[in-house]
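Recall that a protein's primary structure is simply its ordered list of amino acids. Everything else, from secondary elements to tertiary packing, is in principle encoded there. The following example makes that idea concrete.
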Amino acid sequence: MNVDPSDEPIDFHDLDGLSQFVGGVQSIGGPVTAADTTIVLYHLALDGTELPLPRQCCDGNVIAYTPDDNFNYADEDRWFGLVVGANEHGGAIQVRPLLSGRRLYAVAEQEPEGLNNADDFLYWLDEAEVRDEDQILSMTGVHALPYQCITHVLSIDEFTTINFQGALGVDLGADGWVTLHPLSLLF
């Protein structure tokens, strides 16, 4: 069966100026595997329909995954992330989150403990005209995610539907300061 190239998983390695966000963590590379070392296959498209051919998940792919209830300030059904480190024998993968505008506004408005500049951050979101549905790359935050939380591996076409804003990045500082940066300044 021939697969339309736009149905292939999106790969950040192929995006000009963004491949630098894939690396930076210890990774064995290769596809996501279960504890018995079998390659995990994902059978559903982003819209919930069955895929003609299942997809593997590798470094550089963008995934949809189940939100962590402890940090789901905007009560979203799913989050998106960039896989920056595949797993080994069923362990966690490393993910650089894509943060929705809705989620960023909710964080700024709810001012969770540890956020030191909520008013400034809210101002910057407004100035940059970040919309609720926009997805903005976390420049600094990489976290471990159980591979079982992955619900979808996005295709090239699906990626174009999630409103990724490649011009902006959000810096989640360990010191509690959150800032927006034009990604063009980083290259």
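Strands lie at 42-44, 50-55, 62-65, 79-85, 93-100, 135-138, 143-145, 150-153, 164-172, 178-182. The first helix runs from residue 101 to 110.
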